Amino acid sequence: MSRPLRVVVIGSGPSGFYAAEALQRQSAVPVQVDMLDRLPTPYGLVRGGVAPDHQKIKGVTVVYERIASHPEFRFYGNVMLGRDVQVSELDKHYDAVIYAVGNESDKRMGIPGEDFSGSHPATNFVGWFNGHPDYREERFDLSVERAVVVGIGNVAMDVARILAEDPEVLAKTDIAGYALEALRKSRVREVTILGRRGPAQAAFSPAEIAEIGSLHGADLVLLPEEARLDDVSRETLSRKPDPEAEKNIKYLNDKAAQGAGSNPRKVHLRLCVSPVEVLGENGRMNAVRIEKNKLTADEKGNVRPKGTGQMETLQAGLIFRSVGYNGVPIQGVPFDAKSGHIPNEAGRVVDEAKKPILGKYVVGWAKRGPSGLVGTNRPCSVATANALLEDFKSFDAGPAPEKAREAAEALYRSRQKELFTFKDWKALDRIEVETGKKLGKVREKFTSVAEMVAALSSEKAAA
Question: What is the mean pLDDT of residues 7-12?
Answer without folding.
Answer: 97
